[in-house]
Amino acid sequence: MNRNPHSAPPEDFPSGGNRRRRFDGPANPQGFIDRLETACVASWAGKPVPERQWLVPDLIPLRNVTLLTGDGGLGKTLLALQLQASAALGAPWLGRECRRVKTLGVYCEDEEDELQRRMTDIAAAYGAALGDLEHVDIAGRVGEDNTLLIFGRPGEGADATPFYHAILRRARELGAELIVLDSLYDFFLGNENARTEVHRFGGLLRALALATGAAVVVCGHPSRAGMQEGSGLSGSTAWNAVVRSRLYLTRPAAEEGAVVDPDARVLSTKKANYGPIAGDIPITWQGGVFVADGAQGADMVDRLDRANHARDVLLAAVDQFNAQGRPTIATRGQGNYLPTRVIRDGLAQGLKKWELEREMAVLFERGELAIGTVGHYGNRNARRGIIRPNPPP
Questions:
Q1: SS3 state of residue 83
Q2: Cβ(242)–Cβ(199) under 8 Å?
Q3: Per-residue pLDDT, 108
Q4: Domain 301-387 falls in which CATH fold?
Q5: What would the pLDDT profile of 143-187 be if each residue is shown by its tens digit?
Q6: Sorted alphabetically, which Gene3D superfamilies does this protein's record hold (predicted)?
Q7: Topology given in CATH for the domain delimited by 54-292
Q8: Rounded Cα–Cα distance for residues 77 and 72 (Å)
Q9: 19-23, long-range: CB within 8 Å, 24+ apart, which pairs?
């Protein structure tokens, strides 16, 4: 019985009600009982074995819940935003292959302006423009009621809230196969030490994953004890039980007499039900994103270097063309289209046209390039073209 007048009907929250069948018998005088659905293993004979589906192999499974924890200020939100961008673009995440899917992120600790700033840096690091991230949907929910589950008195169970159903509905509308929830205690207002409440909340998150087929990634903060013992948990050990994968973000341990790089982090696998423990992934903050150290991060570093190189080439070309009285435009198909002219005049320095186009879009988004007046025609009408609004002195 739903005893909370403010909650919505638990449409996809696990219950026995949607599996009731009528059948009569002496042990069932009322005519209704929850039916236990089973599968005979012999019926699987000759059928292909379903392949396990991953968002990030061995780290983040689809149709399941992954818990990402770490102390405040280490960069969990940035990692989650990078994961959304990687999934939307089909680009590696921390040097690991990432499946290309549509994504939804609900962020309760940052306003939309801050999320936009971060995503702009992430897009640039991936050699993309914000316009390329059409499969990244984000909700900034600072200061709002983000509770997903309301608990009644002991023995009365719990009810999914309307906000849970709003997330479920939006994920289905988008076809999202990655759902990020940041951070845990904005969504869970129960007792973190109560195993039954933790299990119910974990069941709700798993129901969300199953209803959408998505990987649900939840960011959370460990307790002081969890950090000291290295578990990365807070509250009941049931948190470890209710998720299929668990990742923990920390700073690297300092060796005696050594100075730790303030931009260095370590992402550790604490639980992996469906794959091997991937161990520690050393990463470093660089240019607004986290990059995997060593060979695994080489591809990202190369993209960052090429994006910065493309920026320098484009800005120098705009200065040169405008000084020559040869303004350029940002419209494809024209002879004075900036990337085309850069290549035609031999100024590309090994960059591809698509790299120049992507970086040009980033520069327009950042306000480093704009359309403005570049001199005048003989009849004194303004001559329009690409300019640098704030050129160097």
A1: helix
A2: yes
A3: 97
A4: Arc Repressor Mutant, subunit A (1.10.10)
A5: 999 999 999 876 677 999 999 999 999 999 999 999 999 999 999
A6: P-loop containing nucleotide triphosphate hydrolases (3.40.50.300)
A7: Rossmann fold (3.40.50)
A8: 10
A9: none
